[in-house]
Design brief:
The protein is α/β, with parallel strands linked by helices and 188 residues long. The protein has one domain: Rossmann fold, CATH 3.40.50. Helices cover 55% and strands 12% of the residues. It has 7 helices and 5 strands. Strand 4, helix 6 and strand 5 form a beta-alpha-beta unit. The longest helix is centred in the N-terminal third of the chain and has 25 residues.
Length: 188
Amino acid sequence: MSEPLRIAVYGPESTGKTRLAEKLAAHFGAPLVAEYARELWDRQGALTLEDMLPVSREQARREDEAAATCHVLRDKPAGANSLVVCDTDALTTMLWSDLLYGTAPDELRRSAEQRCRNYALYLLLDIDVPFAPDPQRCFPDPADREKCMRVWRGALERRRLPCVEIRGNWAERERAAIAAVDEILGQH
């Protein structure tokens, strides 16, 4: 069986990544790899620099587990690609570590550089939706949101990673994301 295609739902905070990842997983009948950092924050409170590497390791473990078992979850012909929808990735963890703490552990950097090549597609969510306050969110100011968007987009561009920008209201975002994933599926 061929390796499943990994789709990363990616971008600055408060852009609807979790919502869109859930919609895509449901639409395609694909496993969803939820954001472990959010789960850990909910359990222990604010994260520190020391949490970044364990967060990245656990996220990677969960994603690899989903990829290894998703052929069981999908009813597809032999050899057909299936999907794994990821609500975040190691590159995001690295960017947050740099942004919040001014550094990232070397192992996290190496992992992020290696793992970012595993995705068939990054769906980069734009900041064109209202900011939704949440205790885990840091940058409600429009100028800060613009800066984060430049950082997230730049990380993809410098690495020449496959990306589609997703904009608009929630329904437009969902339609655009489904169309982008359908196109990737048609290429494999």
